[in-house]
Design a protein that fits this description.
By secondary structure, the protein is α/β, with parallel strands linked by helices. The protein has a single domain, classed as P-loop containing nucleotide triphosphate hydrolases (Rossmann fold), CATH 3.40.50.300. The chain has seven helices and six strands; from the N terminus they run βαβαβαβααβαβα. The protein has a six-stranded mixed beta sheet, with helices on both faces. The longest helix is centred in the last third of the chain and has 14 residues. The protein starts with a strand and ends with a helix.
Length: 187
């Protein structure tokens, strides 16, 4: 049986969680916006050859993971905060999270603390990364990098700027989160 775990993607509605996930799992992007109601669910087997050497776990566990494989079950949580009580169940037993905002919409950045506190309340102290999406809209940018890096430092997490549309840094963000999740596995 392979190692596996649930990863949640959090953030306001419209930040591109579904697009990031579709780009990473299926290699596709759609300009048509369909709001996620509840949660969307996708599975991806992680290509371990790319990340196994980055792991800081013991060598026996590394070999076991290589032999058995590693599947992540991604849950794209709807970003409607007024309907969050319906989706709180999806936070339970998560092993990692990606907190996403738009670099071109200040209010999505301002809500990061809400999403992180909700994640910690319902999922515990799990590895997570911060993702500023839609860097293809640089000319409309409302959040500067220094502000974002200060928040990332406050939480002690890594920050990635991505574009699901242009496929910029999407794999790198998911790969880093996978490394953090694997490093958090207890033998």
């Amino acid at each position: 049986m392979s190692y596996r775990g649930k990863v949640i993607l959090l953030g306001n509605a419209g930040v591109g969680k579904t697009s990031l996930l579709a780009r990473y799992v299926d290699g596709i992007f759609s300009d048509i916006y369909k709001q996620t109601v509840g949660a969307n669910f996708l599975i991806k087997e992680i290509e371990l050859n790319q990340i196994i050497d980055k792991l800081s776990i013991n060598s026996q566990l590394k070999e076991d993971i290589k032999k058995k494989g590693f599947n992540l079950y991604f849950w794209d949580i709807g970003g409607q905060t007024d309907k969050l009580f319906v989706t709180e169940y999806y936070f339970l037993q998560a092993v990692g999270a990606m907190v996403v905002f738009n670099v071109d919409k200040r209010e999505t950045f301002d809500d990061i603390d809400f999403w992180i506190s909700k994640m910690k309340e319902l999922s515990g102290d799990i590895p997570f990364i911060l993702v500023g999406n839609k860097i293809d809209l640089e000319d409309k940018r409302e959040v500067n990098t220094e502000e974002i890096e200060a928040v990332a430092e406050k939480y002690g997490v890594k920050y990635f700027e991505t574009s699901a549309k242009l496929n910029e840094s999407v794999d790198a963000a998911f790969e880093e989160l996978s490394v953090q999740i694997l490093n958090n596995i207890k033998a």
